[in-house]
Amino acid sequence: MPEAKEIAINAFSMAAPTQSWAGLWAHPASNGLDYNDLDFWTDLAKLCERGLIDCVFLADILGANDAYGGTPDAALRSGTMLPNNDPMMLVSAMAAVTKNLSFGITGNTTYETPYLLARRFSTLDHLTKGRVAWNVVTGILQSTAKAVGAGKQTGHDARYDIADEYMELMYKLWEGSWEDGAAVRDRAARVFADPSRVHAVRHHGAHYDCEGIHLAEPSPQRTPLIYAAGASTRGRVFAGRHAEATFMSTNSIAFAKKTVQAYREEAVKAGRRPDSLKVFNAATVIVAETSAEAREIEADIARYSDETGNLAMFSQWLGIDLSKYAPDDPITYVESNAIQSIMEAMTKESGGREWKVRDLGAFAKVGGREAFFVGSVDEVCDEMIRWRDEADIDGFNLVRTVEPGGLTAFVDLVVPELQNRGAYKTAYRQGSMREKFFPSTDGRLPAEHVGSSFRAGAGAAARAAETVQE
Predict the structure, then answer these.
(1) CA atoms within 13 A on the CB side of 92
(2) pLDDT at 440 > cutoff 90
(3) Between β-strands 132-137 and 102-108, what pairing exists: parallel, antiparallel or unpaired?
């Protein structure tokens, strides 16, 4: 019988007063108001490394959430994902106070310029010694399209078609522009780089044009570890081709298991091994020494949760203006340009439960949201291990609640018990983020990954350098 896999953990955060659960910055024990202070982030990093957390996973959106009532008022009042700062600016400081903690950074393929984003990721991969991942997103907000002058938001599946070409260009820049050893750094000869081994990328595709060399010399990973969060049918195809880790948000083990299987099947279709893709599920965790204490903490947090702000979040995720509905109206399936997997989980995969609008505003276990674990140390550990075993997930993205107390409780209470059960690492693996997640690799994209086919040398230079749209 194979050895049970260790549970991986990401601390899910965002450079905003509060994130998934609206309004919790107002709790007297919350440090949410310090989101724009550097100490907030360095303290978070040090706490995570003390608990052997794998990664600080930084969410981001490039627009104001105005899906509820057609204005950003609810998001602004509740301080939920708005305001939000640039997550990339946080990583160097966190890396400077840690040695092993990794960092997942959200970057948008619809609105970010590939040439510039590639350089920023290479820079951070250098500065962190290879502890960086890119969470690839295509964007869901119409407000972003308007804010950047794009007019109308591109359709859901079409955004993934564009993202496929975006990834091709990124691989060319990271893998194909500089050959291994091109940066000779020869002091005696006074030659930094061998120009014959640095190639201009000439990409003229359906959506992107680029002519030029990658501005950064090869970083430890070259291509950062790739995350993708899309759990829709098209999103799973994209993840199977590109992602090395992915995450979803559901509180149904059955839906999680089905989605994990679909991810792994798509990876196989793309010529990869099923275990080449690690799958995380989001989880809210409230833990204490006893179940009763945990329930008291839950009730206390609920008093500060902002109902309208939570509805604004669901309006964003579902692509539906919930302000138009009465509290007892049921949630029914509709197609949208937003996160289709959440709508499916609340309707088609709800197990017969009918969710109403009022349910979505509560701080509680809600359909379409993440796993919700509340209880004693044993109860929480039992549930986490059950999810690992029954759904075949690799780990959890811990959703931010009232911090730093929530994460501190996890580090001090849950981590030691998971270690006692052999379900959590007792030390970090050495190497880059990719080597920590996949010890059999050398830190580079594996040979079966599509991105490695754009690597310079071994006859691949021409493909890496040239794409011309017919």
Answers:
(1) 10
(2) no
(3) parallel
Residue 150 lies in a domain: yes
Element (H, E) at 47: helix 38-50
What was the pLDDT predicted at 335? 55
Question: 385 in a domain, yes or no?
Answer: yes
DSSP code of residue 191: B
Helix (H) or strand (E) holding 176: none
Structural domain of residue 226, as residue ranges?
A: 8-468
Q: Comparing C-alpha atoms, which of 353, 284, 359 is closest to residue 318?
A: 359
Kindly state whether residue 1 falls inside one of the protein's structural domains: no
pLDDT of residue 152: 78
H helices then E strands: how many in the chain? Answer: 17, 12
Neighbour-count burial of 325, counting CB atoms closer than 10 A to its CB (0-12 exposed, 13-18 middle, 19+ buried)? middle
Per the CB < 8 A criterion, the answer to whether 91 and 323 are in contact is no
The dihedral built from the CA positions of residue 188, 190, 196 and 202, taken in this order, carries a sign that is: positive
Helix (H, G, I), strand (E, B) or coil at 228: strand
Quick check: 180 and 218 in contact, CB under 8 A? yes
In the structure encoding, which two tokens stand for residue 388, read together? 């690992």
3-class state of residue 77 by DSSP: helix
Amino acid found at 367: G
Identify whether 192 is part of a domain: yes
Amino acid of residue 214? H
pTM for this model (two decimals): 0.92
Cα–Cα nearest to 232, from 164, 156, 158: 156
Q: What is the domain count for the chain?
A: 1
Which region holds residue 24: left if phi is over 0, alpha if psi is between -120 and 50, else beta?
A: alpha
Give tens-digit pLDDT for 365-405. Answer: 887 689 999 999 999 999 999 999 999 999 999 999 999 99
DSSP letters of 246-280?
EEE--S-HHHHHHHHHHHHHHHHHTT--GGGSEEE
**Cβ count near 195 (within 10 Å):** 9
Q: Give yes or no for a contact between 372 and 251, defined as CB atoms under 8 angstroms apart.
A: yes
Q: Parallel, antiparallel, or unpaired for β 132-137 and 225-228?
A: parallel
Please report, rounded to a whole number, the percentage of residues in the chain having pLDDT higher than 90. Answer: 74
Give 348: exposed, middle or buried? Use CB within 10 Å, 0-12, 13-18, 19+. exposed
Q: Which of these, 144, 137, 214, lies nearest to 175 by C-alpha position?
A: 214
pLDDT score, position 334: 58
Q: Which CATH number does the domain housing residue 320 bear? A: 3.20.20.30
In the Cβ-directed half-sphere of 280, how many Cα atoms lie within 13 Å?
28
The DSSP string of 391-425 is: H---EEEEEP-STTHHHHHIIIIIHHHHHHTT-S-
